[in-house]
Amino acid sequence: MKQVLRMLQLLRLYCSLFLFLCTFFNTTLFAQQQNASNKGIFTILDNNAEYLLKKSKAYSVSIGIVKDGKVYTKHYGEIDKGKGNKADNNTSFDVASVTKVMTGYLMAKAVLEKKVNLDDDIRKYLDGSFPNLAYKGIPVRIKDLISFQSAFDREIPDFSYLKKNIDDSTCFRIKKIDESYSKKQFLEDLKTIKLDTIPGKKHKYSNTSLELSALILEKVYNKNFETLLSESFFSETKMKETKRNIKIDNSLASGYNNNYLLMPNSFTNLWAAGGYRNSTMNDLIKFLRFELDPKNKIVQESQRNISNSESSWNGYFWDEIGVSENGKYCFKHGGAFGTNTLFIVYPELQIGICVIVNISGENTFGNLYETVVKIAEDLETTSTEKINYGYRLTEDKVIFSFEYNRKLDPKLIKSISVAGSFNDWNPERKDFKMHLKGNNIYELEVPKSQFEKGKTHAFKFVINQTSWINTPKYALNTDKTEDNNLTFKIE
To answer: Where do the domains of the chain lie, and which CATH numbers do they carry?
Structure first.
């Protein structure tokens, strides 16, 4: 009996040891996999930052990523050449129009709380008479403001005369006007503004729409705009480092123009609803997470397709919301005097990306957008096998084929087209619209006779006639140009 008990004790000991070893090795393996994954993501950051530094010629590049709830940030270069002062997560940058999405959130909140209605005439919330804020009897509505379709003929204050001949001093002249321009002047100038078409018909970017929105929000909540931001946005996002009108010092990053002239920081006496705010990567990461929350009803409203567009839309003051190979995306560009920020979220993939460069030039936005799209593509690319992509040939046909990611919502797809050198790169051609074959696979069969033999034809796929799908890195059949188009050839 004692021997049996002894054997049972030894068996329990061996089982415990075995379970411990299994747990240890599984934990170690998981940690190794996690480290490998993290290393891969930071490699993506490094490669794209190197490209952006070279392309934009900025001194400093900062990148922040949220992926599946995890945060990755890294900073490159130096803020001022030769000083070795690399940015970090606490460095404050002028994020300019990224502020507009914050105002959009407050307006979405007001709509859901029935403080305002999207179809309301904006004059309902303005003191005094503004007959000028209508065109042939049709007024500017709340939804026209938030979708940049107000039809205002100019901005207030009006800097257009200064922008006719831009030079190194233009930004300083604009700031000088901003420093002396008041809310009282804004309301006086608002009475002289005109509409150049029916509101809601034409997209026209407008900072005036943002300041008006702040004024309307103050009216319906009976609180000043800064209090509303503090109580209903910054408290929700936990963003404590986003401020307005701060001076350039050790915490605010220098910004430069293309000639590497140090630019001024922005300033306004108005509501700063469309810009004029500084933020840190710490805060912008919190903002990305906030915009990726599928349970936040106000966030979902602010990203909603209020115009029922079949291509892209603006939601509440976003530059563009549309559908790409990575699903729904929402992006906002903030262009300050010497700093550029691109803020983008892919809600379906739970990816958010923020990239900041301390330079402002004619091509800076394009450089930023290209980099952000590449980062998103790199984060989602898993295939390493090189293949001919996007088409196959039969005896008498070219069959174009595109598979949409099965993780994404196919209901957002209104159309997928083939645009190329053979149809003037026109995604609106009905005869090049693809057909759903099932399992998220779209195909289009075209007779070979429509294509010139012996010639290399370039093409790309286009979602909803606006989102040009990037050529995957594993595609063999590319034209090696900057656009990296897909190609095929009929012998």
So the answer is: 92-380 (3.40.710.10), 391-489 (2.60.40.10)
